[in-house]
Design a protein that fits this description.
Pfam families (chain B): AAA_lid_2, Mg_chelatase, VWA_2
Function (chain B): Involved in bacteriochlorophyll biosynthesis; introduces a magnesium ion into protoporphyrin IX to yield Mg-protoporphyrin IX.
Oligomer: heterodimer
Helix content of chain A: 40-55%
Radius of gyration of chain A: 21 Å
Mean pLDDT of chain A: 81
CATH superfamily of the largest domain in chain A: P-loop containing nucleotide triphosphate hydrolases
Low-confidence stretches of chain B: 320-325, 355-425
CATH class of the largest domain in chain A: Alpha Beta
Mean pLDDT of chain B: 76
Structural class of chain B: alpha/beta
Number of helices of chain B: 24
CATH class of the largest domain in chain B: Alpha Beta
Largest sheet of chain B: 6 strands, mixed
Strand content of chain A: 5-15%
CATH topology of the largest domain in chain B: Rossmann fold
Family (chain B): Belongs to the Mg-chelatase subunits D/I family.
Shape of chain A: globular
Structural class of chain A: alpha/beta
Strand order of the largest sheet of chain A: 4-7-10-1-11
Radius of gyration of chain B: 31 Å
Helix content of chain B: 40-55%
CATH architecture of the largest domain in chain A: 3-Layer(aba) Sandwich
Shape of chain B: globular
Keywords (chain B): ATP-binding, Nucleotide-binding
Low-confidence stretches of chain A: none
Pathway (chain B): Porphyrin-containing compound metabolism; bacteriochlorophyll biosynthesis
CATH topology of the largest domain in chain A: Rossmann fold
Strand content of chain B: 15-25%
Number of domains of chain B: 4
Number of helices of chain A: 14
Distance between the termini of chain B: 53 Å
């Protein structure tokens, strides 16, 4: 089957904050996800798919349902496969293959057993032994887990998602199965606040949050239409136009991943972040920590090895809006600088 | 390899850390509940605890980590083996075990071993999480969100120190003594009071507001993130020192004495602070002694009592409603001040009178067993099979509908309700033997069939399953109530009532994330009723839709009631809200009817209204409330009262009611 062409990431008009938030999370998955709030039809899922498409390919161990890496996760592979098949896998060099980063979509109606994994029915009936049937969290390892309408998802499923996203591990203790496997993924959730708010605890667990609205500038709107039509008419040609730009983005992402561990934080920045968070008024300390990480990731994306003031400013736009303490009846804050000024 | 953040490297949250340490020294304190804001390092600190717990002796290869030195606390296997001579001993790190939020009953308590049953036809017990947690720490994140049924199992074991499994034909008892540590964010709903009391200690944590400390916290965290290994090495010395200190405190603990004055101080404290029950006194005493041991002393002092009281009373003080966190630390300090002054005065007197000090042993040396009477009935699982006898598919749902919660009894705080789910949604927590309804619980079905695998004709399968073995999943999922407000928008009183109702709706929806309730609003005026707000949880939507409240004209009460009933019924059919309620806001004076006829003649208006009220009243699954807008007046007609009677509804006069009180009335 021919691979479906995906609308190129570079061709998406506007929505810069959303694109930035997605890129930052791909560079550093420990930012624990992006929550995209906003209207329908603002290119949320297009952007996610497009980003996955341009990312560098990853090495995956063949015949392993847990999408493990042949370099870093040999140990986990042995454990998982032993638990899965009942015997240790052959040692020695593992077969692996390269593939694109996967976007796993979580449907709103998903049941918990499909998400975390469950007892393998067929195997149990035929062989009479218990075996795990990996769920969506296993499939999403090292990829992107995309949850449309996360606010409509059953609470307990969201709990499980966020738990795994935070720990990087999925633990199954259900239906006679006791098992855990690595599950490090970039969590992207979308929601339309008109359909109900997310619980505060869950809101806080999403590292970054962006608000998207339809583009209001006439010219940009025209451009969006033109590009979409051009893409629909001839996807291959259209995509080719953006190949270079896409390659550039992919390259900066790869570069940023290398730079990130080297990024230094100047002494004064810690206090600046702490002060920022205190001034806007947030619960707990998660905001401080995520803001620091985001600022570091921003610096890395900019190929700098030191965090600058502007990184903190940008990070605050992504990290704080959904964490500002609200009085009842108040909406989630959209403009963080204004919130800071008010206090 | 992941490197957990070291316990000693935490900044602030001293009380929380002290509480955990004291529990590590003396597991009999009874665990700890950590309540507080999100993102205050609650989970991180509990996970860090594992590294500083002292090692213990266990029976080698025993899945229950049995203590080789005490036959009372052994599993049946070890006890039997112990009769034939000493058991092989192994040193083992005490574990911090996390209870995943998606755990099902069979994995928590343990269940029948499927594979063993298949190969031998014998029923054998397969240990669950409670077995692995024996003599360790069992950590439950978001304990307030855990399914009640699982919570009961935990409490049962925590209280008795044993886990008894009586299900699926397996009968087994094993030791399950663990330190139960729960964390929760009270924003998401509170814990049941009886559960609250079961935690020995409790702290409330807040974010640090001091800039310097916050700054230091961030630096330390960054240091850990950039090189966790080096960070750990840097802190290793302190970690080891703390570990040694805990081990030492454990040795001293049995020798710690509490004299009379200490015990009197404790009882006085409990009385002055208005603490419920006697468990608090015992916990304070135990904790004070443990604190003394942790400080390396053999005599408990008033300082120990103070530290212990700060940890033990916060969740036991009788609280005012809405008073979320009483500043109990200050209250404790105040009581202590009083006690200390008195103590000093007494000492002075004693010195004058008699030089010999009479020292008494504590009457309660080892902490007494917990009250067994409070224990929730064991093994709810079997009860499920009893209550819901195989029958018509409707049985289960009908039960829930009729009794959302007993009348006259206030629902628990938190207010969302856990209903046996109507659809195949929700969390799978337990198994029922119902033959219909619910989807197949494969694991349980297999376990039911497994023992007969060898004796039944297989037909090519490893496990021949017969209809008799079928087990169904019983799921619970949280649903809120739907409130359909039907409001009189006519000229006479419309605007006040509409504004009042809107305020109440906004107030209700402001907490909707907590109790998952939805609201809808219907206004009736002129000739018809109109849906101003379709059922929603969204406060934004409500704000927008109710920005303008149209009023004026005549009063088509009947049309309003009819539309309200329609919406409630629709919600019921779509199973979107199992408990729709109609809230009628009116003075009961209709002047426009639906023009219904009987025997060719137009039905009198009031009869029409009462007939409609009656048909709402006959709906078993819909409850209603009338907010009476009729002013107190000698000539009052009392129509609303009459309507309420026909609707089988409670009636509350609306005048002067604040939005909060209206919402309160809704829940009653």
């Amino acid at each position: 089957m021919k691979r479906k062409t995906v609308f190129p990431f570079a061709a998406i008009v506007g929505q810069d904050m959303m694109k930035l938030a997605l890129i930052l999370n791909v560079i550093n998955p420990t930012l624990s996800g992006v929550l995209i709030r906003g209207e329908k039809g603002t290119g949320k899922s297009t952007a996610v798919r497009a980003l996955a498409d341009i990312l560098p390919e990853i090495d995956v161990i063949s015949d392993c349902p847990f999408e493990l890496s042949p370099e870093d996760e040999q140990e986990a592979y042995e454990e998982c496969m032993t638990a899965l098949t009942g015997e240790a896998p052959k040692s020695g060099d593992l077969d692996s293959y390269k593939r694109k980063v996967r976007v796993v979509e979580l449907p709103v109606g998903a049941t918990e057993d499909r998400v975390v994994g469950t007892l393998d029915l067929e195997h149990a009936l035929r062989k009479g032994t218990k075996r795990v049937e990996p769920g969506l969290l296993a499939a999403a390892h090292r990829g992107i887990l995309y949850v449309d309408e996360v606010n409509l998802l059953d609470d307990h499923i969201v709990d499980v998602l966020l738990d795994s996203a935070a720990m990087g591990v999925n633990t199954i203790e259900r239906e006679g199965v006791s098992f855990s496997h690595p599950a490090k993924f970039t969590l992207v959730g979308t929601m339309n606040p008109e359909e109900g708010e997310l619980r505060p605890q869950l809101l806080d667990r999403f590292g970054l949050c962006v608000h998207v609205t339809g583009v209001e500038d006439m010219e940009s709107r025209v451009l969006i239409m033109k590009r979409r039509v051009a893409f629909d008419e001839n996807p291959a040609d259209f995509t080719a136009q953006f190949d270079r730009e896409s390659a550039n983005i992919a390259q900066s992402i790869t570069k940023a991943r290398e730079v990130y561990p080297k990024v230094k934080v100047p002494e004064s920045m810690y206090a600046e972040i702490a002060k920022y968070c205190l001034e806007v008024g947030v619960d707990g300390h998660r905001a401080d920590i995520i803001m620091l990480k985001t600022a570091k990731t921003l610096a890395a994306y900019d190929a700098r090895e030191e965090v600058a003031s502007k990184d903190i400013e940008t990070a605050s736009q992504l990290v704080l809006p959904h964490r500002v303490r609200r009085v009842p009846l108040q909406d989630v804050v959209t403009d963080i600088s204004a919130a800071r000024g008010r206090k | 390899m992941t490197y957990t953040y070291p316990f000693t490297a935490f900044i602030g949250q001293d009380l929380m850390r002290l509480g955990l340490l004291l529990n590590a020294v003396n597991p009999k304190i009874g665990g700890m509940l950590i309540r507080g804001e999100k993102g205050t390092g609650k989970s991180t600190v509990v996970r860090a605890l594992a590294a500083i717990l002292p090692e213990i002796d266990v029976v080698e290869a025993c899945p229950f980590q049995c203590n080789p030195h005490s036959t009372d606390l052994m599993c049946p296997h070890c006890r039997k083996a112990a009769e034939n001579g000493p058991l092989p001993v192994q040193k083992r790190q005490r574990k911090v075990l996390e209870l995943p939020i998606n755990a099902t009953e069979d994995r928590v308590a343990g269940a029948m071993d499927l594979e063993h049953a298949l190969s031998t036809g014998e029923k054998r017990f397969e240990p669950g999480i409670l077995a692995s947690a024996n003599r360790g720490v069992l950590y439950v994140d978001e304990v307030n969100l855990l399914d009640d049924h699982i919570v009961d199992i935990l409490l049962d074991s925590a209280a008795m120190g044993v886990n008894t499994v009586e299900r699926e034909g397996v009968s087994f008892t094993h030791p399950a003594r663990f330190i139960l540590v729960g964390t929760m964010n009270p924003e998401e709903g509170d814990l049941r009071p009886q559960l609250l009391d079961r935690f020995g200690l409790s702290v409330y944590v807040e974010g640090i507001l001091d800039l310097d400390q916050r700054d230091a916290l961030l630096r330390r965290w960054e240091e850990h993130e950039s090189n966790p290994k080096a960070f750990l090495n840097k802190w290793r010395k302190r970690e080891n020192a703390l570990k040694t200190r805990i081990a030492k405190a454990r040795r001293i603990l049995p020798k710690v004495k509490a004299d009379d004055s200490v015990i009197r101080a404790i009882t006085e404290m409990a009385v002055q602070l208005g603490v419920d029950g006697h468990r608090a006194d015992l916990v304070i005493l135990k904790t004070a002694k443990t604190h003394a041991a942790f400080e390396g002393r053999r005599d408990a002092t008033l300082d120990d009592v103070e530290a212990a009281a700060k940890l033990a009373v916060s969740h036991r003080m009788r609280r005012q409603p809405f008073d979320d966190v009483p500043d109990h630390s200050r209250a404790v300090e105040k009581v202590m001040d009083g006690l200390r002054t008195r103590e000093q005065r007494k000492k002075k007197l004693l010195k004058k009178e008699s030089p010999t000090e009479s020292k008494q042993d504590a009457p309660l040396e080892n902490g007494c067993p917990r009250e067994r009477g409070l224990r929730p009935s064991p093994s709810g699982s079997e009860a499920a099979g009893e209550v819901f006898k195989p029958g018509k598919a409707g049985d289960l749902s009908a039960r829930t509908f009729r009794m959302p919660f007993p009348r006259g009894k206030e629902p628990e705080k938190g207010r969302f309700q856990k209903a046996p789910a109507l659809e195949k949604r929700g969390r799978y927590t337990r198994i029922s033997r119902n033959q219909e309804g619910g989807d197949l619980a494969l694991d349980a079905t297999l376990r039911a069939a497994a023992p007969y695998a060898l004796s039944r004709p297989a037909g090519g399968l490893a496990i021949p399953i017969q209809p008799d073995d079928w087990r169904r999943k019983s799921r619970t999922h949280k649903t809120g109530a739907l409130f359909v407000f039907v409001v009189d928008a006519s000229g006479s009183m419309g605007s006040t009532l509409m504004t009042q109702t809107k305020a109440a709706i906004m107030h209700l929806l402001a907490q909707a994330y907590k109790d998952r309730s939805e609201a809808a609003m219907i206004a009736f005026k002129g000739r018809k009723a109109e849906v101003l707000l379709p059922p929603t949880k969204s406060i934004n939507l409500a704000e927008r839709k109710l920005r303008t409240l149209p009023t004026g004209g005549t009063t088509p009460l009947c049309a309003g009631m009819a539309l309200g009933l329609k919406i409630a019924k629709k919600a019921l059919q779509r199973k979107r809200a199992p408990w729709p309620r109609i809230v009628l806001v009116t003075d009961g004076r209709a002047n426009i009817g639906l023009d219904k006829t009987r025997d060719g003649a137009l039905l009198p208006l009031h009869e029409e209204v009462l007939a409609m009220a009656g048909s709402i009243g006959r709906e078993n699954h819909i409850r209603s409330l009338v907010l009476d807008a009729e002013e107190k007046h000698p000539a009052a007609l009392g129509m609303a009262r009459e309507i309420a009677r026909h609707m089988n509804a409670r009636r509350v006069p609306i005048y002067g009611l604040q939005p909060e009180s209206i919402v309160e009335a809704l829940w009653e």
